[in-house]
Write a structure and sequence with these properties.
The chain is of the alpha/beta class. The protein contains 16 helices and 13 strands. 35% of the residues lie in helices and 16% in strands. Helix 4 runs parallel beside helix 5. It is elongated and about 85 Å long.
């Protein structure tokens, strides 16, 4: 049978698509001929892979190096209890084959790396970013832009999700939205911060919808738009994203014309390390982000007891500055975790940070503006 034809079995299976005026037989044939790469077979990848296979996408690549863990089953619905300990790509492939035996499945058990990214991505029409770390997101974005492949991106953390399309013609890339990765202390971590299980289904399904829209040509895809979703309030917002003319990758005068050598190092910047020997400072929004990201750190109030009694930041430990200057507080301060110091206005905490650095501590910052700045910030959030 000609590939540009649907069999009677396919007509029956995809009948609900065929009767849609904007999809019809031509749209279903495009799905049959499409090649989609899904990077990640976890919380987002599960619904993406399920719906793409169900929709009749002809060829699907699955990239993941991880094994199924019991903690995955709360949201990674393509895997089963019997799959615990097996590679995620094998579990996903079994599910896809059982759902649609006509779908061709390509598996990449080594994950996506600088060495293989372009070779893998160039073989597909579209790429789905269903990953959960910044290093891989930047790698995917850069490789998609260089290979001229649209990337359907999704992200979830706690109760919030986001979806967009990057690297499509005339649209922005991920670096236009995030020119640089956040400091590692501010990066959300679902393992410690948590994720609402069914939120993955919502965002992953939206990603699959955007893939199908791009393949069939229906609707308005999220090119140049960022969709945000709050599961607690069921509120969505659509934010316009312009291509950044100064983007190092896709701007008017790009300075990056190939993949970086090391994306892990690129995404390992820290709030706590300054090269010029000065005292690092963070601002109230950064401290709030650290608390929300479940980063492990020690928060120390260096004011006096009388000031503490008038108000303090939740989670802080009171160690008046005199105890830091005479060294008696060192037994209370961790060498293994980053340390954030604050006072009333930000002056005493800088002096205390200097004392700790001289005493051999390496990860110390001062809260700029001190408790006053924090108090003002919390009044407006």
């Amino acid at each position: 049978m000609n590939k540009r034809e649907l069999s009677e079995s396919e007509r029956l299976r995809y009948g609900r698509h065929l009767v849609l005026p904007k999809i019809g037989e031509e749209g279903q044939l495009r799905l049959k001929e499409a090649k989609v790469l899904c990077i990640g077979a976890g919380g987002l990848g599960s619904p993406v892979l399920m719906y793409l296979a169900a929709a009749g996408v002809g060829e699907i690549g699955v990239v993941d190096f991880d094994l199924v863990d019991q903690s995955n089953l709360q949201r990674q619905i393509i895997h089963r209890e019997s799959d615990i300990g097996t590679p995620k790509i094998e579990s996903a492939a079994q599910f896809i084959h059982a759902l649609n035996s006509q779908t061709k499945i390509n598996l990449y058990p080594d994950g996506l790396k600088v060495e293989n990214a372009l070779e893998i991505i160039q073989s597909y029409d579209l790429v789905v970013d269903a990953t959960d770390n910044f290093a891989t997101r930047y790698l995917i974005n850069d490789a998609c832009y260089l290979a001229k492949k649209p990337c359907i991106w999704g992200s979830v953390y706690r109760f919030d999700g986001q979806v967009s399309i990057f690297c499509a013609p005339e649209g922005p890339c991920y670096r236009c939205l995030h020119p640089e990765p956040p400091a590692k202390e501010l990066a959300p971590n679902c393992a410690t911060g948590g994720v609402f299980g069914s939120l993955c289904g919502t965002i992953g399904s939206l990603q699959a919808t955007e893939v199908i829209k791009l393949i069939t040509g229906v609707g308005l895809p999220l090119i140049g738009s960022l969709l945000t979703y709050d599961a607690l309030s069921a509120e969505t917002e659509l934010v316009h994203i312009n291509p950044n003319p100064d983007c190092v990758l896709c701007g008017d005068r790009p300075t990056q014309q190939k993949l970086l050598a090391d994306y892990d190092s690129f995404c390992s910047i820290s709030l706590f390390n300054l090269q010029d020997g000065s005292i690092a400072e963070i601002y109230a929004p950064d401290l709030s982000a650290m608390k929300n990201s479940a980063t492990e750190f020690q928060l120390i109030d260096v004011r006096e007891v009388e000031e503490w009694n008038l108000g303090f930041i939740d989670g802080a430990l009171l160690i008046p500055q005199g105890e830091i200057f005479d060294g008696s507080a060192f037994v209370k301060i961790s060498h293994d975790r980053p340390v954030v110091l604050y006072c009333q206005s930000g002056v005493r905490s800088i002096n205390c940070a200097q004392a700790l650095l001289h005493a051999g501590y390496s990860q110390v910052v001062s809260l700029a503006g001190g408790f006053q700045a924090w108090d003002q910030f919390t009044l407006h959030v």
